[in-house]
Amino acid sequence: MEGLLDRPLNPNKLLKEQFVSNLTGSSLLEIAALSTIVPVVVVLRKWSSRDNIRRDSVKKNDDALADHKDGVYYFSALVIDCLTVVLPILLIFTILAEWAYICAISLVVVISIYILLKRSQSHLKAQQHLPSLRADISSYRVSVVLVTCLSILAVDFKIFPRRYAKAETYGSGIMDLGVGSFVVANALVSRQARNITSM
């Protein structure tokens, strides 16, 4: 009876403890590459959409056909966002983790070429639409939540590199960066940042 009580209930407990222990994180260069990839993917998606101007909402007294078109538009935008933002980030954080530097450099080159092409064509257009600060802050907050959710869900699987997990004592990983990013994201929309006095 005594030997039965000494055995752990979960025989894989030791394996699980070894899997989540002694994490030292990754290099700061790799964290910089990963934290560059996310905003570049979001910016490329925003720039690639044909309608950067916010669409007017459908009025309540419009017909059902307009509601159907609006629903199809938002569903197609959701699918495109998943394919162009969520899927690349998920792949880079898991399967393509060994090529994070190459992915970061190639995405920065693509966005640089796009900026140069935009500047060369900007003198032809008389009026340019500048993106609003509110939209940029929203994009940053969405990307922080997206990376955090993907990392939290993927950290328990072997496909997620252990160096990206939260470091135990010393070091830094992409999940350590998430804590600071949440602080910055919430500070950007705080009452003090928006100059709102307390009631």
From TrEMBL:
The transmembrane segments are: 20-44, 72-93, 99-117, 138-157, 169-189
Instruction: Kindly list the places in or outside the cell where this protein is found, as annotated in its UniProt entry.
Output: Membrane
One family name in Pfam for this protein: GWT1
Q: Set out the biological process GO terms recorded for this chain's protein.
A: GPI anchor biosynthetic process; protein localization to plasma membrane
Report keywords, A-Z: Membrane, Transmembrane, Transmembrane helix
User: Would the keyword Flavoprotein turn up in this protein's UniProt record?
Assistant: no
State whether keyword Magnesium applies: no
State the membrane topology. Multi-pass membrane protein
Name any one GO molecular function. glucosaminyl-phosphatidylinositol O-acyltransferase activity
Q: Which GO terms describe its cellular component?
A: endoplasmic reticulum; membrane
Could you identify this protein by its name? Answer: GPI-anchored wall transfer protein 1
Q: What is the lineage of its organism?
A: Eukaryota, Viridiplantae, Streptophyta, Embryophyta, Tracheophyta
